[in-house]
Design brief:
Helix content is 70%, strand content 0%. The chain is mostly helical.
Length: 56
Amino acid sequence: MVPVLLVLLLALILFGAGFALKALWWVAVIVLIVWALGFVIRPTSGGGKRGRWYRW
């Protein structure tokens, strides 16, 4: 009985990790797109020079 429970627990953990990693890939892709758009759509500063879109 214990080996069956361990296998089921391992399958559940691997399924959860796979779903979490897939979700993290989607988050990474969205952040990359927003980061790339930040370089294209930058506000201009007072002298007509393009400023930084981030604050750090």
